[in-house]
Fold these 2 entries.
Entry 1:
Amino acid sequence: MIRFGLDIGGTKIEIVAFNAEGESIYNQRIKTPDNYQNFVAAVYHLVCDAEKYLSCTGSVGIGIPGTICTHTGLVKNANCTFINGHDLKSDLQQKLDRDVFIANDANCFALSEAVDGAGSDGQVVFGVILGTGCGGGLVVNQQVLTGPNGISGEWGHNPLPGYSESSDGQEQQCYCGKRNCIERYISGTGLEMQYLQRFGQALPAAEIISGMQSGEMSCRLAYYQLVDQIARSFATIVNMIDPDVIVIGGGLSNVASLFDDIPKQLTRYVMDHECRTKILPAQYGDSSGVRGAAWLPVSR
Ligand SMILES: [Zn+2]
C-alpha cells in the first residue's frame, strides 16, 4: 500500500510517497500556485504524476498551514490565503476520485513524530514547532486529537503564563487579535523582538543563538529568558494533559542546549516541581510534516 503525503507551504508544495515499510520512495516539489483553481490542478497533477511513475495508486493525506472549519468544512486560517473559504477536501476528492485527508501542518508534524519518530514510545505526544511562529498538535494513541473548533494544539495563542513587563518586556499584539500570545515570545521572531526591546539592536535569531554559544552576555540573557518562557508555556501543557513526550521541531529545535535547559526550568513551574515528560527534538526535522500527512489516512 502506497501512502502519499503532501505538505502545502506558502512557497512550495511537496509530495512524498511512502511504501508499506514507511520508506520514502518518491518525492517532488513544485512552487505553490497563486490561485485556487491552479492549486487544485497542481495537487491533482502531483498525485497523478507520482502514480504514473510508481505504476500504482495510493492514499492521499495533506498538511495545510491552516485548518478545516468543523462547522462549514471550509479551509480557514491558512497563510496561503487563496485556499481559505474553499471546500478543499471535497474539491480534491472529486478530482482524485478517492477520500482525501487534510489536517493542520502542526498536527501532521505531531502525528509523524508520535507514530514513528521521537515520540513513538509515548501514548500522549504534544508536538511543537518553534520556528518563525509556534504551532502545536496533540496526538493520543497515534491519532490526532481534534475538537469542535478545529484548534486543538493552538496553545501558542494563549497568553504567556506568568507574564511580567519587567522581565518579558512590553505587551505584544498578536496577529490573531489577542495580546501577549505565547507565540509572540517563544519563536524566532519573538526572540528577535525581545532582544531588540531589551538591547536596542536588531539581531537575527541565528546570531543571537550563536552569540549565546560563544558566551556573549546579552545573547545569553535573551536565550535564558526564552528558555524560561518556553518552560512556563510547557508547564501549562504538562499540568493540563501530562504528555509522555513534548517533541520540538522548527528552526529552534536545532539548538541542542534547549533540550538540557528546558527540562531544568520546567521542574520549577509544573505542579509537584517534578517532571517526567521527555522534551525531545524531532526525529524527522523538516520531513515530519509530509510524513505525518501520509499517516493521516491510516491513523483514523
Ligand atoms: Zn495570537
Note: The chain has two domains: 2-108+287-298, 121-282.
Entry 2:
Amino acid sequence: MNATDIDPLALAIAPPPNETPAERAERECAEAEALRISNEIDEQLKREKEGEKKKRRPVKLLLLGQSESGKTATLKNFQLTYAKKEWLAERNNWRAVVFLNLVKNVNNILDVLSREMAAASLPSPEYVGSSDESSEDIQSSSKPRLKFKEKHRLLKLRLGPLRRIQTDLERRFGESTLEPEPTTVTTAAPFDDESANRRVLKEFSINSSNGWKSAFEKIRARRAHADGDAHALRKIRDSDDEIAEVIAGCRDDMKAIWEDLTVREMMSRSKTRLEDSAGFFLNDVERIAVSNYEPTDDDVIRARLRTLGVQEYKFIFEHGRTVGQEWRLYDVGGIRSSRAAWYPYFDDVNAIIFLAPISCFDEKLAEDRRVNRLEDSFLLWKSVCSCKSLSRTQLILFLNKCDLLQAKLQRGVRIRDSVPSFGDRRNDIATATKYFQQHFREILKQYSPAQRSFFVHLTSVIDTRSTAATLAAVEESILRDHLRRADLM
Ligand SMILES: Nc1nc2c(ncn2[C@@H]2O[C@H](COP(=O)(O)OP(=O)(O)OP(=O)(O)O)[C@@H](O)[C@H]2O)c(=O)[nH]1
Ligand SMILES: [Mg+2]
C-alpha cells in the first residue's frame, strides 16, 4: 500500500500507535463521553426545531356570541389592523351592502308609514289600530292622532323604486341579507348533542377556505362567469350604476322622510329605534346617496350582512408581534339554530373571543321573542365555559356595544326594569359594566372544568381606533399562550 491510499481523516482519528491498555481505556471513555454530548446536542436541536414548527403553526381563533353581537365587525377590525392590503382590495365590495342597508332603513319606515296612513284614513271611531301590537301605541288614545299630509303620500310614492332596489340587492347577496324570523323551537343548550351537530353542520356549514364572504364569492363567481363576455360584464356594470343612480335620485326624499317630525314621532311610537339597529346609515344619506360613492373604513365596519354557518378566514399578519404568522379566524352565525354547527371547530383552538352585547339588556332575541338577549348571552357563556373540549382554550370576553349602552342609559332606560337583580344600584355605565362583568366572571369561575384566567375588555367594535388597541392586547396574550404551549409540548 502506498502513502496515497491512506485516508488522511482515518489516519487522524486512528488510535495512536503503541497505545497502552490504560491509554486505550481512557481514550474510549473520552470518545463515549463526546458521543453522548453530541447526541444530546442533536436531540436539543431536534426539540428546538419541532418547537419552532409548533410556534409557526397557525394561531386559531374563534369568534363566538349571539347574533348581532359584533363577531363579524370584530373580524373586520382584525383585517383592517393586521391585513390592510386585503382590506383595501375588498373595501369596495361593501358598497352594495351599504346601499342595501340604507335602502332597508328607508323601506322599514315606508312599511310603518303605509300601515299607519291606511289606518289613519279610517274615520276615528272605527280605527282600532293595525294588526300588530305596536300600532296600538302609534295611535294610542292618550296621545294626539298623527296627522299625515300630502307630503307624506308624495314621499311614499317617490321612494317607491327603493323596493325594487332592495329586492335586486337581496337576490344578489342571498340568504345573508335576511334577518331571522321568530321561532320557538330552538333550545338554549347549543352544542351537547353530537347527532344534532352533524345534522346542523350539514345544513349550515360554509367553510370557505379563504375570501371575505360567501356572499361576495357569489358575486365574484358571477363576474368571473361573465369575464370575457363583454355583453354580460356590461350588464352587471349597468345594473350597479343603475342602483347607484336610483339611490342618488332619492337622496333628498330619503333625507326628508328621516327628518320629518311626524315620521319621527310615528317611529318613536312604534318603538322602532332604527338608529340603534344593525346597518343604520340614514344619518349619512348625503354622503352615501351619490353615484360615485365609495365606502369608508367605518362604513365597512358598520355594514351589516348576516353570517351563515361557519366561515374561515386566513390572515398572514403584516405587522404586530406576530408578523408573518398565520392566523385562522372562524366567524360563525350566532342565531340559536346555527350554534350546533360551532362544535366541530372547538378542536385545537387557541382562543375564543366571546362577544356579549351588553346594551341589549332590555331586548329580545330576533329568533325567539321570549328570550332576553342578555340572559341568552349568560347562558351561552356558561355553555362555552363548561365545555370540556375547550378547557385549555383561552377565553376572552368582549362586553360589546358599550356606546349603545351609554346612549341608552343617558336616555333614561332603567336596567332594573329588565334585570331585577340589578336593584337600586346607580343606573350609569360604570356601575352597569362592573355588574355585568362580575356576573360573567362568576359563571367562568363556577363552570370552567379547570381553573382559568378571566380576560375581559369593554368594547365598541365600530370604533376602529380603540378596537385596534384592544386587539393588540388580545394578540399579545394569545401569542404568549401559544408560545408557552409550544414550549411545553
Ligand atoms: N353601535 C355599535 N354597533 C355595533 C357594535 N358592534 C357591532 N355593531 C353593529 O351591529 C351590527 C351587527 O354586528 P355583526 O358583527 O354583523 O354581528 P354578528 O355577531 O356577526 O351577527 P351574526 O352574523 O348574525 O351572528 C353591525 O351593523 C355592526 O356594525 C358596537 O359596539 N356598537
Ligand atoms: Mg356575523
Note: DSSP finds 20 helices and six strands in the chain.
